[in-house]
Amino acid sequence: MWIVFIVTATGLFVADIKLSAGRAHEIGRKEAMLLCAFWILVASVFGVLTGYMLGFDRMVEFFTAYTIEYSLSMDNMFVFIMIFSYFSVPKKYQPKILTWGILGAVFMRLILIFAGVGLINKFHWLIYVFGGILILTAVKMLLHKDGDMDPGKNPLLKLLGKIMPIDKEASGGDFFVKKEVWHATPLFATLLVIETTDLVFAVDSIPAVLAISREPFIVYTSNVFAVVGLRSLYFLLASVMDLFRYLKYGIAIILFYVGVKMSISGYYKIDPLISLGVVLAILAASILLSVLIKNEVQAAKAE
After folding, report:
1. pLDDT for 246-277, tens place per residue?
2. Measured distance CA(263)–CA(253) in Å, rounded
3. Bridge-partner residues for 176, per DSSP?
4. Which whole-number Å values give the CA distances from 3 to 56, 60, 241, in the listed order?
5. DSSP class of residue 166?
6. Is residue 188 part of a domain?
7. Buried (b) or exposed (e) across 204-239, using 16+ Cβ within 10 A?
8. How does residue 49 score in pLDDT terms, banded at 50, 70 and 90?
9. Pick from 69, 66, 52: which is nearest to 1 by CA?
10. What pTM was computed for the model?
11. Domain presence at residue 66
12. Residue 131: predicted pLDDT
């Protein structure tokens, strides 16, 4: 199954890069929807194959972990929209930045996931620490105000400025330009901020997935299939942001539920199938609420 995963994920991601991200162009809503549907279909087929090879319980764990990771990624995408806006990155170059960002995220999460699984297996009490972190994150997300984050204050961005100058006037699609000396471009600065932001998000999302399964194969494959679909998800969400006004609250409730599930796992284990149903129901309710309230607001304005 590891061989199947590596061959499938690598082959499809390379093909996706060549067909879509390999050329500078703006990804429209139609292309984003097709790419999202494609990656969700691939993940679904892989999940069914996982069930066939490893059993029904592993399949449920995969789909639950994938759904949680994908839903958490939706909230991350709104932060990415703000980062691109801050650095004034043209839309035609955004796919390139997201592609390199995804590659970095895949390798970072490989290290974090295996480290997390190893720590929990060796120090079981850490599962309660992770559960507490998720609950605190959920509360913080509910109290968080949009726009609190300032990409310009990123510590790695400040470190980059000390290592080499940043050419704020560069307008091409390169990460570095050569003048008298090498200069970093706004595209590389954006990539650096996105990578560090994803690392922060991974600290929250990986414990959430570890609450569903402690099998490295399930945790990593569900993470990767969710992460490689982020580029298309970003452009889809950017075009329909109004439909996800209350998604943040739904994601916070999911994190709270998963944190509680992890915290009580030593005393009571919740069936993975129930967890999958709860996560899907919360997501559907938050999106439905966003749509209904939007329609009511539009109707009130029309009157």
Report:
1. 777 777 887 788 778 777 766 777 777 787 78
2. 15
3. 184
4. 20, 21, 37
5. B
6. no
7. bbbbbbbbbbbbbbbbbbbbbbbbbbbbbbbbbbbe
8. very high
9. 52
10. 0.70
11. yes
12. 74
Q: Answer positive or negative: Cα dihedral of 185, 227, 132, 282.
A: positive
Q: The domain containing residue 275 runs over which residues?
A: 2-138+201-302
Is residue 184 within 8 A of residue 176, CB to CB? The reply is yes
State the greatest distance between any 2 C-alpha atoms of the chain, in Å, as a whole number.
Answer: 64
Whether the pLDDT of residue 208 is over 80: the answer is no
Q: From residue 26, how far is each of 9, 99, 120, 235, 239 by CA, in Å? A: 24, 14, 43, 9, 12
Percent of the chain exceeding pLDDT 70 equals 77
Number of structural domains (the chain) is: 1
How far are the Cα atoms of 87, 93, 170 from residue 90, in angstroms, in the given order? 9, 6, 12
Q: Identify any residues that bridge with 166 across adjacent strands, giving them in sequence order.
A: 184
In a domain, 180, yes or no: no
For residue 229, is it within any domain?
yes
pLDDT of residue 48: 93
DSSP string, 42-99: HHHHHHHHHHHHH-HHHHHHHHHHHHHHHHHHHHHHHHHHHHHHHTT--GGGHHHHHH
Task: Give the relative orientation of helices 29-54 and 230-239 as an angle to the nearest 10 degrees.
Answer: 140
The answer to whether the beta carbons of residues 295 and 83 sit under 8 Å apart is: no
